[in-house]
Amino acid sequence: MSIIKEELLLNNRKDFADLMLSILDPLKPYYSKGKAGVKIGHTSAHYADTSALMEGFSRPLWGLTAFWAGGSRHLEFEEIYRKGLVSGTDPESPEYWGSCFDYDQRLVEMAALAYGLLFAPEIVWNPLTAKEKENLASWLNEINHNKCCDCNWRFFNILVNVALKKLGMPYDEKEMKSSLDFIESCYIGDGWYVDGENGQADYYIPFAMEFYGIIYAMVMKEEDPIRSKHYLERAEAFGKDFAYWFSEDGSSLPYGRSLTYRFAQVSFYSACVMANIEPLPLPVMKGIIVRHLEYWMKQPIFDNTGLLTIGYTYPNLQMSESYNAPGSPYWAMKTFACLMLPETDPFWSCTAEPLPAMEENKFLPKADMIIQRRKDKNVVALPGGRIYAHSHTHTEEKYAKFAYSTKYGFSVMRSPLNMQEAAPDSVLSFEYIGHIFMRGQADNFTVTEDKVASNWSPLPGIQVYTEIIPTKEGHRRIHIIESEYECKAYDAGFALPIDKAEGCTVRSLVGDGEFKMLKPDPNTNLIYSKTLIPMVVYDIKTGRNELETEVVYD
Questions:
Q1: pLDDT in tens, 25-64
Q2: What is the CA 61 to chain-centroid distance, rounded?
């Protein structure tokens, strides 16, 4: 269900605050007795269920902190979080969060607590007794004795140490410096980062690397002015490119992992507003944020009690990651960072404006993709692919397809045993020995202004060279296949909603392919629960095969 029964209108600070509270209010019955945990479901993540309870407690703070920092009060949530912080960090409490270990999920959740301590200390810190403050600081200091993953996680160490430093509590300057140096090693220029050694361009750049850099710059501009200045300059540069990921209807590219965080996609621009930086004019950023929230509030992303579900535009465990617990989607509360601004800020009184004129085909070299802005508010990404090994659930589907669309989304595989369960949209797949194989890890790829080229192998004995060439109508795919055996190949377009299977078609230009419409298993696509996939079927002979497929879409 959607919690929004009528057309949502967002304009002033109260509108945003009311929306945030309407999303968080349904959580209230599910806080534990000591308020240090939230249990809203029975599915599991790879980490301990006790850590998932703590995650459910921490993630609403991404919204509440900004709400409090902007001057608002909510006595019930204030009491919940004071009590929960005390219960969770008291070793004598039955709800004590416990000692951490290397790569612990609780290290991730410390960042939301640090956010609260930095921006709303009068709510989450000042009311505590001296002993309670000592317990909280001591528990947070666990992050200095346990390893964080070498990716955006290193920012968690930075934010926690900055918070402890600002509060005059023991912290680790050496660990913080090491993490700052690591983050610097992830910077690749023009405002872009990679998310660690095996990271690619995805939402962890805007809602993690850039978002945390902005926070750091806001609170450390006096102690660390040069680095703070760099973080803000990078955000300004990045924000100009990132606008290309958004459609005029408010949707953003379904691409990469952690898509169940949904409207966290726009949290970067909310952080820019919070920090008074303008990669785009303020009214344009307001427009992006407003349309994005309006888009998401029209989707059935809430259950019948008003709780956020795991999924994308509808509840869907199939597309989730192993680290998605029931409370994980509340990472989306980062989008309410703009609430940190007081009611008198110009952001609240300015008019939400549309996106400016943008290039129809935009080459984003740091993201390794070409962005097409199509008719009917459709934004399509043609990415290079993935050159790193499988690391997260459905890595192949989330990074290695030929095209990703705000209008049509993408599909994830149920199993490789038949075409219906494989649901291979926007890829060239091969059927052999009773299995479906497709592009996963590429051997290499190049992306230029006019094409995407890659060398890849779906399975031993087949080597493929593919070129994706954007056109006025959509794009063309040229495949040169060297195969050691005969098999079938399927070159597919976007998955279409079954009740309106139009807007994308495919046809064979070279290779005598035959058109086919596949009806895949339900709930394989992120946007539509039932779909049809247009595709061209080719007979692959031993030796060299040359194929060319035209994909046309609005």
A1: 999 999 999 999 999 999 999 999 999 999 999 999 999 9
A2: 18
